[in-house]
Amino acid sequence: MPPYEIAERIREAAEEAKAEGLERGMRKGIREGEVRGIEKGLREGKEEGLREGEDKGLERGRKERSIEIAKALLGEGVAIAIISKSSGLSEGEILELSVP
């Protein structure tokens, strides 16, 4: 085989190896990117869920505390309008509390 054919085959083999290496590297990069993206999404989703749960829990606690205060004020004979302004509960909500 003449030297120029040998050189051509070496060049072709090098190009094929380079292309194969690039493709393998791209596949690996894509897999790693997907894994990292999923991990990040799960982490962010968990954090957001915890924040939302905490916010809802705090709001529920505030509401329950307002109801307790409203019941106590009703028991002391305080006017419903005053209880509503003080507790943030509507007059309708307070009336429901006064019904046994």
Topology, element by element:
Blueprint: H1 3-75, H2 80-87, H3 91-98
Descriptive overview:
This protein is mostly helical and 100 residues long. The chain has one domain (3-98). It contains 3 helices and no strands. It has helices at residues 3-75, 80-87, 91-98. Helix 1 (3-75) packs antiparallel against helix 2. The chain is rod-shaped and about 110 Å long. It starts with a helix and ends with a helix. 5% of the residues are buried. The model has no long low-confidence stretch (mean pLDDT 92).
Brief characterization of the structure:
Helices cover 89% and strands 0% of the residues.
Uncertain stretches: none
Overall mean pLDDT stands at 92
Q: Residue share in helices?
A: over 70%
Shape: rod-shaped
Count of DSSP-assigned helices: 3
**Distance between termini?**
106 Å
Our Rg estimate from Cα atoms comes to 35 Å
Query: How many structural domains can be distinguished in the coordinates?
Result: 1
Provide the β-strand percentage band.
Answer: under 5%
The number of E-state strands comes to: 0
**SSE run:** HHH
Largest sheet geometry: none
Keywords for this entry:
single chain; 100 residues; mainly alpha; 3 helices; rod-shaped; Essential protein Yae1, N terminal
